[in-house]
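All the exercises in this workshop are built on plain-text protein records. A record pairs a protein's sequence with a compact description of its fold. Backbone structure tokens are a discrete shorthand for how the chain folds in space. Once this layout is familiar, the rest of the handout is easier to follow. As an example, a complete record with its sequence and its structure tokens follows.
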Amino acid sequence: MGIQSLSKPSCLNKRQISPGFESKRTALYNCLSMNDRPEAETPTSCSSIKFEVHNRSRWDYVIALLIFVAVSVQGFFTIHQVGISWDEPYYFIRANNYLAWFSRLGEAGSFSRETLSRTFGFEPKRDDHPPLTKLLSGLPLILLRERVGDFWAFRMSSPILFGVMLGLIFLRTAWAWGRVAAIASVVCVFSLPRLFVEGHISATEMPLCFFWFLSVWSFEAAARRRALIPLAGVCYGLAMSVKFTGFLLPLPLLAWALLYERKNLALILVSLLLLGPLVFCLLDPGLWHSPWSGFIEFVRLSLSRRSWNPRWVLFLGKIHQFSPPWYYAPFMVLVTVPVFTLALFFLGTAQAIANRLKDELAGSCLIHFLFLTAMTMPSNAPMFDGVRLF
């Protein structure tokens, strides 16, 4: 967010741009320069300027593919260098149980309530998240276990998701701010220490990051193309199917829509509220016999986690029960994010505010950052393991 250009793009000429692009570029430049004009002279079309102002090229897709390959390959070759995280043993057992269930499909009782509950059911204090993360780990476990071993094959879904996400980040940023900003964005995300580690372990954080980003992009695209509205609902359902945090995604999406694009908002919200829970229930066979009561019970347990899963957090020399002080997340961001990335973040934030949030991508980044930070501040929000949960 800190390296987008506010000047008229100089790297494009009229032979390289599509019809109508020159007028869009000029309008954008006029809008971004309006701070020097009297209020009465402000162009009325500024609020409708879209954030994809750079011309798309097939080379963007080539670069995104190269990013995916590079990130995935480095993950494959370094995945054994990261120690076992404390959630992975439970997830490993569950993933193997899922595969065993798939191998017995068609047998008597394979779809019984008892079998589905035993295989996919909610297990407080052990595996209290929906099945999608373990399902994603199951495919490489089938394909690669003979070649690299069971546990390392179980982890292989994470570098793949990490690579795909960084490739998509490049495309999203390149089409808004240009390739230089896109490459810088990829480098900043890749070099985040915690996220780099998440790209090597099979936990819920990498799938949540991936489907959160996918949901945001599909929602913002659906705001202008009705054909993409069902896709937004499906992506939201996938985010829900990783962990409860994904349930909260409509809140920052709604804030973005109210600020930038309200045209298809009602239809998109209907899609999210209908398709999201539907996808969630379809991907959790443990809910198939009683989807409504199972869905409500999952939400109830997720909101009352403090009562059945107490935790203690050591923060600045003091032990806190379940949740540290409200400033825990901002403090941890400041001390764990690389200085270069922090500098770009503060620069981009100042630039976005000075520009009155006219840049939709910068506004989106800021909205989601503020939302995720605010989500850590209530006293019933689970906060432990450093920056893992935000």
Observations:
- Residues 5-49 have pLDDT under 50 and may be disordered.
- Residues 72 and 133 are 18 Å apart (CA to CA).
